[in-house]
Amino acid sequence: GAVVSQHPSWVICKSGTSVKIECRSLDFQATTMFWYRQFPKQSLMLMATSNEGSKATYEQGVEKDKFLINHASLTLSTLTVTSAHPEDSSFYICSASRTTGTDTQYFGPGTRLTVL
Amino acid sequence: RKEVEQDPGPFNVPEGATVAFNCTYSNSASQSFFWYRQDCRKEPKLLMSVYSSGNEDGRFTAQLNRASQYISLLIRDSKLSDSATYLCVVILGTDSNYQLIWGAGTKLIIKP
Questions:
Q1: Closest alpha carbon to A80 in A44, A35, A38
Q2: A81-96 pLDDT tens trace
Q3: Cα–Cα distance between A30 and A110 in angstroms, integer?
Q4: Which residues of A touch B6 (CB under 8 A)?
Q5: Among candidates A66, A31, A61, which has minimal Cα distance to A49?
Q6: A10: nearest CA in chain B?
């Protein structure tokens, strides 16, 4: 159990368009989901934390109007990169936890975004 | 069988001890391997890559056993600050199209 999927796995888009990335917990209910961005040297940066049914909490320096996060159900969270620019090209990874109190996160496989 | 498996622990270890844990993977085509460290509810940070010949970084030693399909992490002279969750990551595919597969992590607690 505890499988997390992401869709799409790879997306290429033109500058100025918006891209939606889905994160699903396939066999468990995820009260909390996290969105990360991966930089070239494999380090991860936490972008935001979302609890089901409430607004996401964004980390300092992350534009909430640029990276829209919706966690409408216990199995699905979406990240929408609005008006994407080449500097948004990166690897986006989500993770999910069963409760707000647990420190066990189950990671998705990531989505590679390339903005032309 | 999960693609990447780790013993969730927790491993309770006294300060100064040596501790090791493994991560097994099921896909023999796996290309690259990494160990990440994650503190409670913070983002994982890359600890070290795992090279075929094994590699060492201070008190940390990583090894790869392709025949048995596992990687290991050894921590010597453990410190209280080593308490964290250690995640292994396996990469399938090529530079232009790869997939990350994460283990669920092994929780390590170093006690004084």
A1: A35
A2: 999 999 999 999 999 9
A3: 17
A4: none
A5: A31
A6: B97
Contacts of B40 in chain A (CB under 8 A): 103
How near does any CA of chain A get to the CA of B67, in Å?
25
- pLDDT, position A101: 62
Residues of chain B contacting residue A93, judged by C-beta atoms under 8 Å apart? 100
User: Best of B35, B41, B94, B101 to disrupt the A interface by mutation (most A CBs within 10 Å)?
Assistant: B41
Tens of pLDDT along B80-94?
999 999 999 998 876
Q: In residues, how long is chain A?
A: 116
Selecting from B40, B46, B102 the residue whose C-beta is nearest the C-beta of A103 gives B40
Q: What is the pLDDT of residues B25-55, one digit of tens each?
A: 998 888 889 999 998 877 888 899 998 899 9
Q: Sorting pLDDT into bands at 50, 70 and 90, what band is B97?
A: low
Match 């796996």 to its residue by tokens: B30
* Strands, E assignment, A3-105: 4-7, 10-13, 19-25, 32-38, 44-51, 57-58, 67-73, 76-81, 90-97
Distance in angstroms (rounded) separating the CA atoms of residues B97 and B33:
16
Contact B101 A93 (CB under 8 A): no
The reported pLDDT for the residue numbered B94 is 66
In the structure, what pLDDT confidence band is assigned to residue A42 with cuts at 50, 70 and 90? low
Q: Which of B26, B31, B34, B43 to mutate to test the interface with A (most CBs of A within 10 A)?
A: B43
